[in-house]
């Protein structure tokens, strides 16, 4: 369900528009809209009328389109490219404290529910047999993704958030021997990608978001080559 993260990221633009329009703040708007998006998706998914990818495609592009319309109705003009592609220069001191809080909550939720998250990821039927409710765990995943999207939006942009959800995990998969190792290595890859990407963007005077993703992709290909060398 890698497309799930991208869909939540797309819905965040509607949260940005509503947050500015109603004066509640961007982060608050993003969190509320992304949570509503996730709950709506999980509810519709239970009906099994459409495949997961089709349902995500419909909801994601609907939210993205409404978000663009809402932003166009705002009297306050905003730089939409900063939210699409990210701009590290828009991050304020208060935003940093919100990020620290978001990271802390995310780590806490993952640590407390690690075994359940892992079991549902492997097999939902097996999780039910162990007394775990997959709907609850998927809702928890929605909350975690929402927090990640909210704190990452201004840095790498909603169009590139998916890359940072997928590439570090794909990179660590070539290097890890267990799910725990994979999570730790993916975190390390993400940190290295952000620091190196920001440095690259300063040196080249390029957008920070794409620079971070480029570094992350380079690390992925290096891990792929390392995996091939290990096989040989």
Q: Can you give a write-up of this model?
A:
The protein has 232 residues and is an all-alpha fold. The chain folds into 2 domains: 1-156, no CATH class; 161-232, no CATH class. 84% of the residues lie in helices and 0% in strands. It has 11 helices and no strands. It has helices spanning 2-22, 26-47, 52-73, 80-85, 93-112, 114-122, 124-129, 134-156, 158-173, 179-204, 208-231. Helix 5 (93-112) packs antiparallel against helix 8 (134-156). 36% of the residues are buried. The model has no long low-confidence stretch (mean pLDDT 82).
Helix-strand layout with pairing:
Blueprint: H1 2-22, H2 26-47, H3 52-73, H4 80-85, H5 93-112, H6 114-122, H7 124-129, H8 134-156, H9 158-173, H10 179-204, H11 208-231
Notable characteristics:
mainly alpha, single chain
- Give the helix proportion (percent range): over 70%
Beta strand count: 0
Span of the ends, CA to CA: 32 Å
Estimate the mean pLDDT confidence: 82
The Rg value, from CA coordinates, equals 18 Å
**SS-derived structural category:** mainly alpha
Shape: globular
Taken together, the total number of domains comes to 2
The main β sheet shows up as:
none
Query: What letter string, H or E per element, gives the SSE order?
Result: HHHHHHHHHHH
Report the portion of residues in β strands.
under 5%
Summarize the structure.
The protein is mainly α. The chain is 84% helix and 0% strand. Helix 1 packs parallel to helix 3 (52-73) and helix 2 (26-47) runs antiparallel to helix 3.
């Amino acid at each position: 369900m890698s497309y799930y993260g991208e869909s939540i990221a797309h819905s965040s633009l509607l949260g940005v528009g509503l947050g500015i329009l109603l004066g509640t703040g961007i982060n608050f708007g993003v969190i509320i809209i992304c949570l509503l998006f996730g709950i709506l998706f999980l509810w519709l998914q239970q009906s099994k009328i459409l495949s997961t990818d089709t349902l995500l495609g419909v909801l994601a592009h609907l939210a993205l389109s409404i978000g663009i319309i809402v932003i166009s109705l705002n009297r306050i003009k905003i730089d939409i490219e900063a939210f699409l592609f990210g701009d590290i220069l828009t991050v304020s001191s208060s935003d940093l404290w919100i990020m620290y809080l978001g990271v802390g909550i995310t780590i806490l939720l993952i640590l407390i529910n690690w075994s359940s998250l892992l079991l549902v990821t492997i097999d939902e039927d097996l999780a039910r047999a162990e007394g775990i409710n997959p709907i609850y765990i998927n809702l928890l995943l929605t909350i975690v993704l929402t927090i990640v999207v909210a704190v990452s939006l201004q840095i790498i942009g909603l169009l590139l958030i998916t890359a940072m959800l997928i590439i570090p995990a794909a990179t660590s998969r070539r290097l890890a021997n267990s799910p725990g190792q994979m999570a730790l290595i993916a975190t390390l890859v993400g940190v290295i990608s952000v620091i190196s990407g920001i440095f690259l963007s300063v040196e080249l005077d390029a957008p920070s978001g794409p620079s971070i993703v480029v570094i992350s992709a380079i690390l992925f290909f290096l891990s792929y080559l390392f995996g091939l060398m290990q096989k040989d």
